[in-house]
Amino acid sequence: MRGPAGASGGAAAQGGGAGPRGGSLLERKFQRLGLFGPADFIVHLPLRYEDETRIQAIAELVPGVPGQVEAEVMHSEVQLRPRRQLHAVVRDDTGQIALRWLHFYPSQQKQLAAGRRLRVRGELRHGFGGYEMVHPRLSAAGSPLPQALTPVYPTTDGLPQASLRKAIDQALAQADLSDTLPDALLRRYGLIPFADAIRVLHHPPAGASYQDLLEREHPAWLRIKFDELLAQQLSLAEARAARHKQRAPVLPARGGGLPRALRDSLPFALTAAQKRVVREIAADLARPFPMHRLLQGDVGSGKTIVAAFAAAQAIAAGSQVAIMAPTEILAEQHYHKLGAWLRPLGVETAWLAGSLGAKARKAALEAVAGGRAQLVVGTQALIQEKVDFHNLGLIVLDEQHRFGVGQRLELSRKGESVVAGRNLIPHQLNMSATPIPRTLAMTFFADLDVSIIDELPPGRKPVLTKLISDARREQVLGSVMAEVRKGRQAYWVCPLVEESEALQLQTAIDTHAMLVQALPDMRIGLVHGKLATAAKQEVMQAFRDGEIDLLVATTVIEVGVDVPNASLMIIEHAERFGLAQLHQLRGRVGRGAAESICVLMYQPPLSGVARQRLRAMYETGDGFEIAQRDLDLRGPGEFLGVRQSGQELLRFASLETDARIVEQAQEAVPIMRDQYPEHARAHLDRWMRNRKDYLRT
């Protein structure tokens, strides 16, 4: 599709000339913004608006706020120090201000002839010599003022606002502005027609509330946000419907067998929440379409035993099970824990990780390919080309958000098979100890079935959290000694150094050396990501066996490490860590009978965000509350790990402020799909072109 009529001519008029096959230079800039045809241009909506409807006196200008004055040029000159720049001073009856351009053209110098009256628009700010405007816009004084707010659009290098406005106006004249929502839904949710909303946002009428437009609370914005969220929800509903048309092996939950034997062999009783979630997963596995369930549970809530019951059901029905974890420490912990539960019941297990020797790896691959290994646990080594499964029916991804989309799909493809002419794909269980806030779950995870373990096993005591300045380091060392004298163990987590892995490693080594010197009578171990796997396993086993009193570690111990005797966690420079990481680290203690403490040692002064993070950790141990505060602080892009993907998660709606509209959009999905399928199709065509695949990932 080409852009609005006249776009090519616009490029020529600006001297861009014709480009290669991609169209004119201007068209290629439009395409960089995802603007190909009229339907794209009309929903390229303003970022903000400028009020150019009035002239202010210089004395009325407010620093930091755009303003517009008409004033006489007192003088102008090109200054060469500290760098070449154009400088001018203008005045009206109420005062004077300086104007400054670091990049300028001869035409601007001519405009600034002494004695000329100009209209000047820009943002007032404090400069070295008083108030000034940097790179203000100049135009002739006395020309007619706009009657409405001026839209400012998202743009790209070398694409001026004037070109965007012209192209959008052309698109508004050409595009189909018919409504994709039936009248019944417009009335139900009090929404204005689409055409009205679009015209208002591109050309706000005189008297339109600047504040409502800026804060996206104007009825026109409410309609657009509803449309965007409805399109997203329709897309996810389509994905769910498509999944229900796929076929998976039926893995029924029989009355006895392996799951019953597992339950009878456990030295503990499942919590009510665990029993509920086991039933939900069991019902999914017995269906002929693939399970796609997210299992959420706070740190220490007992997700692994739930996964063991899912595995037992799949194995009892004749399928293999693969469990993939993002780190070798976590994968190994799953291997030992699941093996301890299932091996005595006759289940053959296999371990696959990058550190495996050639002979052991060959034996594991043969056991997996031949079907002898019923439960296969490992890292990303599971998705390597040489790994072939005999009949993979269930895959379990722990900390699933740490895997890329391609990695998840690759493991799923390992289980694809053709039975009686039907393509079967395995069931999938995603586990996460980072709870997903409700609004995020309602939007970006709406096509998943979600199970929540919302209670901790009996005996899990809340961890006491303390905030201590690093000026009180001696006091912290005293706490470590006191805890070890009681026969307990402690973690000392090194500061996060994001800029350099080598620097972070050195920090860990230096911290270990400092603690060995400060605590000479203590057995102190060190574990970090660069340690050879065998050495890492040796240190961790020594810590589990009580042969190490204090473990100095980087964030490799963030998930999966379970040492009930460890009752003290010191996190150094806690202000450098994210909320989710701090909560995960804190979850490494409080796993035994003793009261546990997490010390967040920080270095003042704290930034505003760091202060809010540490306050959240101090005030609550609830993972869902922590996750909600994390979302509020970081936004959904960082929360989902796609901040730098180059794609926006939501262009217009906000998860922080538009939860009510999310609920309305969810409510409208079945109405659109069941009663107005043509409207639903048109709505998706308008809003989801080029974005559907992204939302699915």
TrEMBL record:
Keywords: ATP-binding, DNA damage, DNA recombination, DNA repair, DNA-binding, Helicase, Hydrolase, Isomerase, Nucleotide-binding. Residues 1-23 are annotated as: Disordered. Residues 284-453 form the Helicase ATP-binding domain. It catalyses: Couples ATP hydrolysis with the unwinding of duplex DNA by translocating in the 3'-5' direction; ATP + H2O = ADP + phosphate + H(+). Its EC number is 5.6.2.4. The keyword Transcription does not apply. InterPro entries: ATP-dep_DNA_helicase_RecG, DEAD/DEAH_box_helicase_dom, Helicase_ATP-bd, Helicase_C-like, NA-bd_OB-fold, P-loop_NTPase, RecG/Mfd, RecG_dom3_C. One of its GO terms (molecular function) is 3'-5' DNA helicase activity. Residues 463-632 form the Helicase C-terminal domain. It is an enzyme of class 5 (isomerase). GO terms for biological process: DNA recombination; DNA repair. The keyword ATP-binding applies. SUPFAM superfamilies: Nucleic acid-binding proteins (SSF50249), P-loop containing nucleoside triphosphate hydrolases (SSF52540). Residues 1-22 have a biased composition (Gly residues). PANTHER family: ATP-DEPENDENT DNA HELICASE HOMOLOG RECG, CHLOROPLASTIC (PTHR47964). Plays a critical role in recombination and DNA repair. Helps process Holliday junction intermediates to mature products by catalyzing branch migration. Has replication fork regression activity, unwinds stalled or blocked replication forks to make a HJ that can be resolved. Has a DNA unwinding activity characteristic of a DNA helicase with 3'-5' polarity. Belongs to the helicase family. RecG subfamily. This is ATP-dependent DNA helicase RecG. The gene is recG.
